[in-house]
Every structure is written in C-alpha cells, then in structure tokens.
Amino acid sequence: MTNEELNTTLYKKMFAEQEEYEKWLLAQPPEEILKHAYEFTVRQDILLSLEYHDLTDAQASALLKSPGPLGDIFKEFESRETDYMDTVFESMVSRADAMVKKEEKQRRVLKETPVYPYPAEYARENDELAQYRASHRANIACKEAIESAIAEHYHDNCLGKEAALEVIEAFGLDRTLYVLANTVRQKDRDGRISHDNKACARTVPVYEDQDGFGTDQNIYFVVNAHPGLTDLFLNQVRREWFLQQPLTKEEITAEAVRLMQELQKQKEPNSPSGTHFMAEISTDFLARGSSKDTDQLMKMLPFRSMAFSGLEGRKGQFLLVPKEENRDQPLRKTRRSVRTKLQQPTEKGKKQNTRHQTSER
Fold first, then answer.
1. pTM
2. Helix, strand or coil for residue 324?
3. How many whole angstroms separate alpha carbon 327 and alpha carbon 68?
C-alpha cells in the first residue's frame, strides 16, 4: 500500500474504534458519561490530528497491528506531562483581562458622559438626541449603582461611607447629585427625607421629561432604595461635594480664630513632650485647603516659632507652639498683595472714569 493508503486505513480503523467507544459511552448512566468526557474529547482530537498529518509507512503499519490503536494513543497522551493546564489557565487569564478592559471602557464612558439636563423634546429640536440618550443611560446605570452600594454597605443600622465614594468614583459627583435630586423631587412628600436634602435637591435643575404617552422619563432613574437610606446616602454625597469646595477667606480666618482660642484655653503645655501648646487643625480645612490656604493661615497666626505637624500615635495634623511664646497676641491682619491693590481702581480713578463716561454721553 502507498503511504496515503496506509494512513487512510489507520484512520478508518481508529474512527470505527471511536464509534464503538461512543456507543458504549452513551449506554452508561450520566455520572459515568461525565467521568469519561475528557477521554472522549481527547480521542476526538487524536482523530482530527490524523486528518491533517501523515505518519510514515513504518509508523502507520505498527499502529495498524494494535487491536485498539486509538486507545493506545490516548494512554500515551495521558502519561505525558503537557502544558495543557497552562494553556487552560492562560486562556482564563486572557478572557478575564479582556472583560476587565471592556468593563473599564464602559466605566470610563459612563463617567465621561456629560449630564444632559434637558428633556427629549428639547434634544430633538436641537439635534442633541445622541447626548440625551447617552446621558439617560448613564443616569439609569448610576441609579442602579446607588441601589447596589446602599444594599452592600448598610450593616448594623449604619451606612458605610464607602457607599457614596464608590458611586462618585464611577459616575462623578455631578451625575450622582443629579440622579439623587431627581429621586428626592419624585419623593418630595416622603417625610423620611430631610428638609435639608429636599432643599438641596431643589437647587439642581431637573426638567420634566414626558414622552408621547405623558410618562415622565425621569422615573426610570429614581433610586428605589428605602427613602431613609437614600437620605443617608445623599448626606454622604453632599459631604463629598462640600469637601471639594475651595476655602473662602472667611473660612481661613475662622480656622485661625478657632486655633488661637484652642491654644489660649490650655493652662499647661499639652503636647506629649510637655514642651509645646498644641491645637488640632480641622479635618475639613486639611481636606479642602491648598498649600496657599495653609500659607495664608500661618501668616495670620502671630507666633515667631510654630509648626504644623503630625504626632506619633495620633491621627490628624496639629499646630505646635513653644510654651515660651505669648499666646495672648491678636491675629495678624493680612495685607492684600501689591498686584491686587494695583488692579483695583482708586477713588480718584473712579471719579475720573465717571466724568469720562459722562462726557461721552
């Protein structure tokens, strides 16, 4: 026989052997079939391999002498150490990475989609339906994320602070507030939502969005968690919004006054070493303040020697003043910068400008 004939004969013998094995396997109970599923699959792969590869005459002739060449080859395969499990794990990792990238892309799209506050009718008239629909989808996803966060982080009659943080991280503060404002407006008569949160919701513009059947499309992103828990969640979100607002001059001054009062009420040095008077800096000031705000605060304090520092074993930052310093001094008055002063017109300049405008008329 030619080499092709030898390989074809071998294939037919192994194919018949596999058919007999399959017939036997199908007659077994389900649990026995499952035990042999791996063997059946590998035997099928062996047949497939022979379809695309040719053995030498000697190799094909040798296998034809076996009463069960397919079973013999499977035993040989099973006895070998292969990288099969490595390939399985690599496939698992590859698929997981692809899904992670897809989810990251979806999260990025949701977070970067701007809030579109206007109704569908306005969007249609202004050729902005794509923006409206993208924003509407993001609103619904945000609503679902809020519900999941509340369910996950509410334990022992307490809503963990992570609830709001993870939603804000995923959707941004603007959309989270927008969805909550819409929710509170839809539940305006519910007494379990505080007056402060209802007042906050009214500051966020949410337009009625009726479809052709008179249904308000805004109902699709109303948070369906317990109203009391929704109220707690909104408190957290408002807190995060507050921490992102820059400090005003009045707030910096108020912090300086508070620190001075705290230092002055101490009778004896209260630092761990007993060498300094100390007062803890407000956590809100630290969260909201920039380095310029800290510099401004230090300029207002009247001490020749002082430091802002952490203390071992204690949370937070502290103002430390040596005990030799006079703590009864008033705060320093900060001067406006020369640039700011020059930018503001003088009274003389104002009068000249007024006369100039009058003469023009």
1. 0.64
2. coil
3. 100
Instruction: Give which of 52, 66, 74 is closest to 10, Cα–Cα.
Output: 66
Average pLDDT, the chain: 90
Round to whole Å and give the CA distance between 177 and 15. 67
CA distance 105 to 139: 17
Cα gap 112→106, rounded to integer Å: 10
pLDDT at 88: 81
Give the residue among 243, 233, 228 at the shortest CA–CA distance from 180.
Answer: 233
**Would you state the structure tokens that stand for residue 219, as one six-digit string?**
């109902």
Contact between 50 and 14 under an 8 Å Cβ cutoff? The reply is yes
Query: From CA 240, how far away is CA 237, in angstroms rounded?
Result: 5
Strand locations in the chain, DSSP E? 154-155, 158-159, 276-280, 307-309, 318-322
User: Which residue in 201, 220, 198, 199 sits closest to 209, CA to CA?
Assistant: 220
Tell me which amino acid residue 344 is: Q
Are 33 and 24 within 8 A, CB to CB? Answer: no
Helical (H) or strand (E) element with 106: helix 84-112
Q: Which residues have a Cβ under 8 Å from the Cβ of 321 and sit 6 or more positions away?
A: 263, 276, 277, 278, 303, 305, 306, 327
